[in-house]
Each structure stands twice: as C-alpha cells, then as structure tokens.
Specification:
This protein has helices spanning 28-37, 160-174, 180-206, 213-223, 232-239, 243-251, 257-275, 282-288, 294-305, 309-326; strands at residues 6-7, 10-12, 40-43, 53-58, 61-66, 73-77, 84-90, 95-99, 102-106, 111-115, 120-124, 130-136, 178-179. By secondary structure, it is an alpha+beta fold. It folds into 2 domains: 6-206, Jelly Rolls; 213-326, Arc Repressor Mutant, subunit A. The strands form 3 sheets. The chain has a 6-stranded antiparallel sheet, with helices on both faces. A 5-stranded antiparallel sheet has the order 3-6-11-8-9. Strands 1-13 form a two-stranded antiparallel ribbon. This is AraC-like DNA-binding protein.
C-alpha cells in the first residue's frame, strides 16, 4: 500500500531544518521574500543577518513568517513582473507600508493588502515578527473588482472571515507532516474564504451608518499622514457626516480628532527617525509626516517622547553600533 507523502513547513535561519547550501548567494529569508515581493533590500543593524522564520507554499499560495530582532527594520522590494496580492501583518509593533504615493501605518496585528507587482517599503519600528502571504490575483475571482478599496488600508483582525483566514495560514505554516490531501484542502478553503473576506470588508467601507465608522476614519487618517492640509473637514466630507459627529466619535475614546492626528504623525516621525539613515534631514522627516513647522514639530515631539528628535536619532544610532560590536 502506497502512503501519501508528508509535507512539512520549511524552517530556516537560527532553527533551520536543514542548512542553506554552501553556494547560496543570499540568506534564505531574502530568497523567499524575493519570490513573493521581487528583489529585496534590508536596512537594519545587521543587513546580512540570516533572519529565522517559516515558509510554506502550494498551489500558488506562499506563506512566510519572519522573526527579525526587536530593533528597527526596513525592507524594500522591487515588485514582481506578474500581478498578485501581498498580505502583511506585524505582531510586535506598528507596521508602516508605503507603495507609490500612498503610505499607511497599521497597528499591531492589523492586516495590510498591497500589490505584489509594484515596489514596496515595509518598516517595523520595533522589529519582531512579520507575517507575509502572496497569492496570484486570479484566485480572487469576482472579488477582484473590490480589491481597490481595500489596498493599503489597516484592516482590523476582528473580522470573522479574516480570523478564519489567519487560522488556516497559521495551521499551514506550523503543522508538520501534512498529507497532500490535507494541504490541498487547506489551500482550497483559504481561496474560498478570500472572496468572502474581501466582499465583507469592501461592503463595510462602502456602506454609510456602519458601526465601524471610527475605524474607517482612523484608516483614512493613516492614509493621509503626509498631507499637512488633511483636516477634520476632509474626514467629515469623505464620511458624509458633520464635523461635530466626527468629534463625538473621538470624544467617546477620550480624545479629539486633532489630538489623534497629532499622535499618529508623531509616531510616524518616531519610526522614520529610527529607521531612516542619518543622511535624511529631520526637517524632511517632519514634512513627510505632515508637519509644516519644524519648530512646532520639535516641541510636540519632545513633549510626547521626552527627548528631542535629534537626541532620539543619536540614541538609536549608538544602540545599533553597540549591538553590532557586541555580536
């Protein structure tokens, strides 16, 4: 009697199942991401570190989880030649994703959809676990037309279809000794859930009077951090409600629209200071994060974090140098 072959996710890096071939020109994590995102570059304390992780791929679906050190990490990719969808999630801190003219800041465990065939920038200000999935656009079926409203938006993981999708991905990445039949079944279920998820999320974005309106407003704020002219009036107009109604939503969380916007911009600036090189002027970072007045930015930053922007950058650089010396 012939037994079905068992499939096991690939472990690489520090806890690798098998060593990388001696003639390999780059670490395994880089080769895997290059297959999913296009040619990649990595900025961090030690760019050539063999980051540990897991990989699983079958029937056009590729899944990987990377475990960088808990230090700022920035990964850029050139994009693939063919169309596809990338799904990203950071589990130990905020995730900043930029593609074309758009930038989005997602919170811990929030999901971001991006195009696989366009250059992409991924920043984790605190490092740590990064989940990434790639799939061809043909698996979206009729839901493909709805994807545009979901691209580069932070998506909360409290959506049931998304929770199921994450569970399937986690099973495929971590369950050893899967048979061909089990693996194919899981991928089919993953693909069947995807259009359901997309349709539900797109409907949530489109319908008025939805209970997740504040979440949508926060997503809009995240997508417009670099726009210094973005205002309460813009949000009210896009949501088709009054400015007073927007303020009431934030008041329920003990804050105001302007305070929330400032907090998001300061956090974006903090990430940029930690991740970008010393050649990037702090004034330019302030402008990129929506601050027109560098002096105001410096005062607000110091009030929020207790240090000046220049001091935070200097401390981060010294910490990286010390870490490199100690390795």
């Amino acid at each position: 009697m012939k037994h079905a072959a068992n499939l096991t996710p690939l472990r690489f890096g520090a806890a690798a199942d098998r060593p990388v071939a001696r003639n390999a020109t780059q670490p395994m994590w880089r080769m895997i991401l290059s297959e999913m995102l296009g040619e990649v570059e990595h900025d961090g304390p030690a760019p050539e570190d063999d980051i540990p992780g897991l990989f699983w791929g079958r029937l056009g679906l590729s899944l990987t989880t990377l475990y960088p050190r808990p230090t700022p990490v920035r990964i850029t990719s050139s994009g693939l030649t063919g169309p596809g969808i990338v799904i990203l999630r950071a589990m130990e801190g905020p995730l900043r994703v930029a593609q074309g003219p758009r930038t989005v800041l997602a919170g811990r465990s929030e999901v971001v959809f991006a195009a696989a065939d366009q250059p992409l920038s991924i920043e984790l200000s605190e490092g740590g676990r990064l989940d990434c999935a790639h799939l061809s656009d043909h698996v979206l079926g009729s839901a493909a037309s709805q994807m545009s409203v979901l691209m580069l938006r932070p998506i909360s993981n409290d959506c049931l279809p998304l929770q199921l999708l994450i569970c399937y991905a986690g099973y495929m990445l971590q369950q050893p000794h899967q048979t061909d039949g089990q693996a194919d079944m899981m991928v089919r279920h993953f693909y069947q859930l995807l259009p359901v998820l997309i349709a539900e999320l797109a409907a949530g974005v489109a319908r008025g009077g939805r209970p997740d309106r504040l979440s949508a407003i926060k997503q809009s704020v995240g997508a417009h951090l670099s726009d210094s002219g973005f205002s309460l009036a813009d949000v009210a107009h896009s949501e088709r409600i009054s400015a007073r109604a927007v303020q009431k939503l934030f008041h329920r969380e003990g804050t105001t629209f302007s305070r929330y916007l400032l907090e998001r911009r300061l956090e974006a600036a903090r990430q940029a200071l930690l991740l970008r090189g010393p050649g990037e002027a702090i004034m330019q970072i302030a402008f990129d994060c929506g601050f027109d007045d560098p002096a105001y930015f410096s005062r607000a930053f110091r009030k929020r974090y207790g240090v000046r922007p220049t001091d935070m950058r200097r401390s981060a650089r010294l910490a990286s140098q010390t870490q490199a010396i100690n390795r």
